[in-house]
Amino acid sequence: MSDTILPQSPARRRFVGIAAATIAAGSLSQLAFAETTQAITDVAQATGGDTTAIRPLRVHVPESQLIDLRRRIKATRWPDRETVTDDSQGVQLAVIQEFSRHWSTDYDWRKVERKLNSLPNFMTEIDGLDIHFIHVRSKHENAMPLIVTHGWPGSIIEQFKIIDPLTNPTAHGASASDAFHLVIPSLPGYGFSGKPTTTGWGPERTARTWVALMKRLGYAKFASQGGDLGGIVTNVMAKQAPPELLGIHTNFPATIPPEIAKALQVGDPTPPGLSDDEKHAYEQLNALSKRRAYAQEQGTRPQTLYGLADSPIALASWFLDHPDGYGQPAAALMSAVLGRTVNGHSAGDLTRDDVLDDITLYWLTNTGVSAARFYWESHFNPYNATGISIPVAISAFPGENYQAPRSWTERAYLNLIYYNRPEKGGHFAAWEQPQLFAEEVRAGLRPLRT
């Protein structure tokens, strides 16, 4: 075979040039991918292989990931505009485009990152899974340990504004005797917690994990609080009734009587004989039952939601449409995004950047699908809490999915120590009305302090 190098034809030169460019582009693409999958947290290593160690955690997102996020937002391929003048077909094109413009040009992730790092963040392994949590101890003696659980599409970011009012009540017009030591974990598959690689990580296992976490932190007795999925975990914990649990407070009570649930299932009109509060709750539930497509998808086919991992706009629009329209619980989110009150539900203290902080956390941790899978792992009626006998405090906010009547609440919770109907606030109560929410938690759990 001759070693003579023959001159290349123009066609061959073009082919070689294209091939080289393709290889180079592929290499650059792989490099970009590698950069955007770098760790976004620094976690102290356990010494001596101690899996029970409490390890400090610090958040730092590489700039390459934020650049990639903005690039993806700007590269969105948009669909046609909706054919109606309202939101009946979903998140309106003009709304999401303006939202995305702000996200890609004006939004500053570093602000929430600094807030995160100003708080004591930790990681610990429980039952084979890394669990992230914020742990803020009060300066006041005899503070009550309280674990607070977020929901979907929320995160620990939901709870930021209640930390100081609950741990430092004297700075917010309350008594030192109302202080709490706060533990705020990320649900399995959410935020900085580990993503389960096997089935079984639903509310029941999570509730047991929370008890293990509180005991590991040295709390022999504690209370639990939750809304949305956090309310479900809190209710399950109350049903399990571990001896360490003093009682619970929830703003997502599960109080629907069996006969009401049956009437809703078959689409019956409002049953006769209901009180005004019960009629109002039935009408709210009847409207909600027609707008649950997101929950059905997450509860049956969460793995299909690949768009939540691939497109920031798919993730954002899925969250903003919760549940399938701008009624509750999405109304407060949209009020914050639009800067005006939607359907009579004020955003309260919730801002557009609060909403973006939460969505961006899901994006950076790539937890859209792993979080949705929590619905698939929930194998019971979340609105039925019959048989709970430990002390329970309920705050029935007017903008919740339904405002639980006291009559239904007393049937579901056998040891009801507090029930109140605040004048304002909705599904994301801690986010929307943090001061009012803190007052409700203090009042609700005060009877347990004796």
From TrEMBL:
Domain Epoxide hydrolase N-terminal: 54-158
Keywords: Aromatic hydrocarbons catabolism, Hydrolase, Signal
UniProt superkingdom: Bacteria
Biological process according to GO: epoxide metabolic process
Record-annotated active site: 228, 375, 427
Stored PROSITE patterns: TAT
N-terminal signal peptide: 1-34
Protein's UniProt keywords contain Ribonucleoprotein: no
One Gene Ontology molecular-function label: epoxide hydrolase activity
Family membership: Belongs to the peptidase S33 family.
Protein name in the entry: Epoxide hydrolase
